[in-house]
Design brief:
It is globular, with a radius of gyration of 29 Å. The protein is mainly β and 325 residues long. Among the domains are: 59 residues, no CATH class; 153 residues, SH3 type barrels (Roll), CATH 2.30.30. Helices cover 6% and strands 24% of the residues. The relative contact order is 0.12. Strands 8-15-9-12-13-14-16 form a 7-stranded mixed sheet, with no helix packed on it. A 4-stranded antiparallel sheet has the order 6-5-4-7, with no helix packed on it. The protein is built from 3 helices and 16 strands.
Length: 325
């Protein structure tokens, strides 16, 4: 008996005229990871009524369970010290006229227990709001926002927000919007790119009405030139070098310890280095269709058609054959 192993198919040679195949159903490469259920966003929407607020909010923590079914989806999440939630405004907007900006003053920069990077409280004539702080942002600093896209891209100032079409190639950015003219509250980290401490994206080139950016994992995305982004690298880059020291400290931050030692795969075990995919274009998700209700009769529920819809007991002499008109 001889065997041969492929990527997804195993062939066993039994005799000159007999083969046995067994297929391996491996997960597809590039599949989306499961969503992280840390807290209930629907509960936050009820508290804020769809509006932005800079006041701290009380979280309804899920501990990795689906809010609808209650099933455990995310492992190693749960417990920890209870912290308030600060709503971060990822969608910065300003005037679209040249030479006019919306200025805000940084009141304080503090640690956010629900995020890895620092957050900054800024105030302008529209009110106060929380934003993600860049690495050199300090209290008392003046930051500006503009939505004007000039003909020739320019270099931006750290902490200021510009459309992607207004920034030159090679600019380092964070909090990049996925779709233009989108503003919803409460906003989540999935609405924008680059929200992790110490990370940034880079503008590669401009192509007409679109801009290609490169994320930290080297993948490229094609976005509209009207998508807003903040210039600079996010703060608290030393977060990834933090040593918790004990399982109790890890648990305090809301992480359940896993059994065994985690070792990341390396090239020693034959890890393949594949070519990066081409730049991807994001497509907005379609809104869910409205629920419709209807009632079926017993005859329709049976699913039978033609002569089979007749009752079992029929009068004598009945002909089942159907004649054309």
């Amino acid at each position: 008996m001889q065997t041969s192993m492929g990527n997804a198919l195993r062939c066993v040679y039994l005799s000159p005229h007999l083969f046995m195949f067994s297929k391996r159903f491996m997960p597809a490469r590039g599949t989306k990871p499961l969503p992280r259920y840390l807290w209930d966003m629907e509960d936050l929407k009820k508290q804020t009524k769809g509006k932005y607020t800079h006041e701290p909010l009380v979280l309804h923590r899920l501990g990795g369970r689906d809010p609808k079914t209650g099933r455990k989806v995310n492992q190693h999440i749960g417990g920890g010290t209870k912290f308030d939630y600060f709503m971060v405004d990822f969608h910065r907007r300003g005037p679209k006229e040249p030479g006019i900006t919306y200025d805000e003053r940084v009141i304080e920069v503090r640690r956010d227990p629900n995020r890895t990077c620092f957050i900054a409280l800024v105030a302008g004539w529209e009110g106060k709001r929380w934003i993600l702080a860049t690495e050199n942002m300090k209290a008392g600093q003046i930051i500006s926002t503009t939505c004007y896209v000039p003909e020739s891209p320019q270099e931006g100032r750290e902490g200021n927000a510009y459309p992607l079409g207004a920034l030159a190639s090679g600019s380092i950015i964070n909090s990049v919007e996925k779709f233009p003219n989108e503003r919803k509250y409460p906003s989540t980290d999935d609405d924008v790119f680059i929200v992790t401490a110490g990370t940034c994206a880079e503008i590669i080139r401009h192509q007409g009405d679109f801009v290609i950016i490169r994320l930290p994992h080297k993948h490229e995305f094609v976005l509209s030139k009207e998508c807003m982004a903040t210039v600079g690298r996010l703060s608290h880059a030393e977060f990834h070098d933090k040593i918790f020291g004990s399982a109790q400290m890890h648990r305090r931050f809301g992480y359940k310890m896993a059994s065994g030692l985690f070792q990341k795969k390396d090239g020693y075990l034959g890890r393949k280095v594949r070519r990066l995919p081409p730049p991807r274009t994001l497509v907005p998700e379609k809104p869910p269709q409205e629920m419709q209700s209807f009632t079926l009769t017993k005859e329709q529920q049976s699913g039978q058609t033609g002569i089979h819809r007749m009752p079992q007991l029929v009068h004598a002499g009945f002909n089942y054959r159907e004649y054309p008109d």
